Fold 3-keto-5-aminohexanoate cleavage protein.
Amino acid sequence: MHFHDDSLFPENQEKLVIQAAPYGPEWLPGDADDLPLTMDEHVQAAVDCYNAGATVLHIHVRELDGKGSKRMSMFNELLGRLRQAVPDMVLQIGGSISFAPEGEGSEAKWLSYDTRHLLADLDPAPDQVTIAINTSQMNIVEIMTDDDLAGTSIAKPEYYKAYRDMVVEAGPDFYLEHLERLRENGIQPHFQLATLAQLETVERLIRAGVHTGPLILNYVAIGGGFAGRHPADLIEFVRRTPDGAVLTIESSMRAVAPMNAIGIALGVHVRVGNEDNLWRRKGERMTTLEQIEQMVHISEALGRDIATGAEAKKIYKLGEYYSGANETLARLGMVPNRRPGQRGPMLRVV
């Protein structure tokens, strides 16, 4: 992204879109004070997030025994109810479905490609499905401290090992077909990226005409194979993100607030919720709603406005598709593909 002298002035920045993740699939009841269990509680969590200022909802579902659900029927039911309860929210399904282990000693893993492809067939369709690019380690506990995990199920050695050893399977066989299925069903892919190598893979997909729509990204700074918390890495990812993309910052535990504060100041967007963080200060619990309210407070203190649901949908360009690689590159503010025999630097299309 290019920064002019006036790019940090809040009146020149897009209004802030707050993405809420209140369904914490890795946690069990008792780990967080605000984990929904029943379907009514799932719906109420969405309503509360929206009323607090969030306009994007990152969705997982939970069975009554407290474990993350992998049943498409539950996703369908929740989506149907959410369309009625929070019609102005952008509904975003977590592409892992649920990576939580089935029990102590089990693996924490992303489901098979075939199962994850079923997210493209949900009815009613979500606005977005998150999509990982390139297989990588996802050791979510690597940069968590003992204080972060104190009193939670992940502090148990069996669960800790399960999350330490988790891998995101997302090779070309997966993402090429998944992108096609999402496009066929009018669902926007929301890319979950952690490294510049992954961002470059997405750029190649755009240049090859595989992805021909808005570029919607999360920068995922959770360590363990994903990005870490070094501010320079965050700044470089922002710098390398195309001007026409929509970028959201995602981190973990007590780093969420400072990483998001940087993101808010830079004019990009933020994600919060009990999926990412349980704490305000060391030893002091913080709910998803309190995290949303904190982002609203930080943004307002900097003079940056909060997006409404309708404004968030416009920012995300829901429903937009482009004719091919050339139009996509132009819409995203990227330099065009090199023509055969063309020499010298490439210039953006005016």
The mean pLDDT is 95. The chain has one domain: 10-318. The domain at 10-318 is CATH 3.20.20.70 (TIM Barrel). The longest strand covers residues 188-193.
